[in-house]
Structure formats: structure tokens, C-alpha cells
Amino acid sequence: MAFQYNIKTSKKDTCSSVCLFIDHKLAAVVKLFLSTFLVAYIFSFSGNIYQYIFNVGLYEIATYMTVPIVYYFTAYLVDKSNRVWIYRAGLVLRTLLVVFAIFYGHDISKLILLAGFLNGFSEGVYYSAYNTITQEMVSRKSMKSYMVFGNVVGKLVDVIFPIVLGALIEVSTFAQVAIYVFVLCLIQLGVSFGVRSKKPQNSFFSLKQYFKDLKQNEIVFKKMKMIYWISFIYGFTTIITTLVNVCIMMEFGSNISLGIFTSIFAGVSILTILIVNKFTKVGKRQVFLFFVALIPVIFAVLFAVMPSVYTLILYNLGNSAGWIIYRTIFDVHRNTNLKESGLYGGITEHQTFMEFMFNAARVISYALMMLLGIWQSLIAFKVFLVVMICMASLVVLLLIVYERKFFPNISEEEKSYRIIKNCLLKDKS
Hints:
Layout: H1 14-44, H2 49-80, H3 83-104, H4 112-137, H5 143-171, H6 174-192, H7 207-214, H8 218-236, H9 238-251, H10 255-279, H11 286-305, H12 309-341, H13 347-375, H14 378-406, H15 412-428
């Protein structure tokens, strides 16, 4: 199986963790440029809003069909080699994509499939290494704090850089801003040399063996199976950001406005997650999460029925608060399940299967978006937005069921101890 983590002999590498964290936040800026603003740039070359919707759907489908294929093959290499070099290769590929945007900016609308393929290729290589390295470096007890801090810093990035990038694009050109992003990519590569990871010993990559090992413990298997189904539903929520960007572009029609509103919503997200982290606990927050699921749906319906700048802002405020809550909770469960169960050897396989589930849902959702572009119905577009918000709320409801089932009124540490104890007792028998 994957990297054989030894909890007794492992040592915390603070320098590597800090460099990985900084690198990933710089990557968030690059991804913001290659997603939100590249998508907005495609809009400027589209004949109308429906052509734009179709083009964006085509770009994203090309991306998310490429990611799982590339992820699978690079995960095999990650499992058997020093995964840091694979991680750096992902950074290099992202850099090349930015260079592509610099030289072919005006032709991107004609090269949508190629741009999407390149984006998916770089994403697959990058995340196949990053997901494994992160789960190896961050301990089970520290995962919640790491995810909360990471999402807060990530949202700070979302507060500052959308305005910066949007303003720069307005006063200069998309290609010129791509040059600045290219410099960030070079800084990323430099910081990545502070990340270190050991080559696994006696390792092999096998999804079949991974699931065979999971089935050895009934409780662990049920937990993971439910997490995988939640991840599939969660994959549909990726399109919400794109749909919101379309709405903002329709209402305001400029990159600076897109940047300002993205920043405001990010600020709400930061405040929300800090409150949630301080005042809620696993197994004792079902009522709170129920309202988190309900409020965005109400505001989405309000926007669909009475479309205006005010209802769009109101919807985004509710959605921004809800998104970071279920994102953080889901990420913590996603990255701690194997460690809670003592199955450290299946990290790479676990993350690979998660990506399969995510991207299957993403391809389906963007294919539907392309159909909306062909259909050319504003009503259908708004209904689709509400349905996707309902899918996000379904993620929250499933997380409520998950926590009630596996963490009923006991602390996370105690539940983890029981699971590991059960695994050890079964091994002895």
C-alpha cells in the first residue's frame, strides 16, 4: 500500500509544513487567476451570455475529465517515489499554463478545450502529490486547526487578490497580469524546495487492495463509504462559484466588480468559520448545521424570484457563510478518517478515489451547464442555480447524519480512540 507511516517514530517537520502551507496559498492566487478571471476573460470574447455559459462549461468539462485520469497515474508515481518532485512538477505545469495565457490570451476563446486540458493536467499532477503530503505531515489532532487556519488564510487571499487582480486587469490587460502571476509561480517553485518528504519503503499502489483492507473493519468501512458518497454530492457544489460569477458578470459586467464582491463574501466566510470553530463541537451542532443548510436555499429562491443586485448580494452572503462551514467540516473528516482507524498505508488510494468521486459530479454538472447555454433560458439557468444550492445543502444534511451516526454525543478524541481500539482488538483476534 502507500507510505507506511509510523506514529511512534515520526517527527514533526515544521519547516516543511510551513513551506507547504505558504506554497499552497500562493497556489490559491494562481488558481484564482486561472479559474475566476480566466473564465471572466472568456466572457469578453463571447457573443452573448449563453455562448459564455456554453464556453465555460466546455472549459470546465475538459478540466475535470482530465484531472482524474492524470491524478490516477501520477498517484501511482507518488506512492512509489519521492512525492515532492511530483508536487514540483505540478507547479511547473501550472506555470506553463500561465505562460500559455500570456502568449495566447486573445485566442483562448478559440482554444478552450486545449486550455481546459492543460489546466486539468496541472491540477491532477499537483493535487495527487499535495493531498498525500498534507495528510502525512499533519497529525490527526492538528487536522481541524490546520484546516480552519488554512481556510481562513485562504479566504484572506480571496479578500485581497480578487480586488488586486480585477483592478490590474481593468487598468492594463489580461496578458500583463498573467506576467505578474508568472512571477508568483516562480516564487512558488523556490519555496517548494523547503518541502521535504521521504521515499516510501516497500510501497505499492492498489485501489483493490485498499478496499479489501477497508472491509476488514465494518465500522471503518461504513464511515468511509458514507464519506465517499458525500464527496460525490460535494463535487456538484464546485459549479456554484462559476454560476455566481456568471450572475455577477451579468449584473455588473466588469472584473473590478467581480473582485470587490468576491472579497466581501470572503470576509463573511472568515468571520463565520472563526465563530463555528470556537462555539461548536462534533456531535453537538446538528441544529446549527440544519440552519446552515436552509438559509442559502431560501436566499437562492429569493434571488431567482426577485433578481436584483440586493438579492444577489444577500444570497452570496448566505452562501459564503455556509460554504466555508461545510467545506471545513468535510475536509476534517476526509483527512482524519484513515488516521482515526490506523490505516496510514491507504492515504494515496483514499485521496485518489475521492478525486474520482469529486470529478465525476463536476463533469455531470458542467455538462448540464453546457445544455443551459444551448437552451438559452434564463429561467432554466436560475432553476439550475437553486438546484445546485440544494445539493450543497444536502452535503450539510449528510454531514449531520454522519456525525449523529458515528459521533453521538462524545468527543472526537474518544470516538477515535474507540475505533482504533476496535481495530487493534480485531487484529489480535
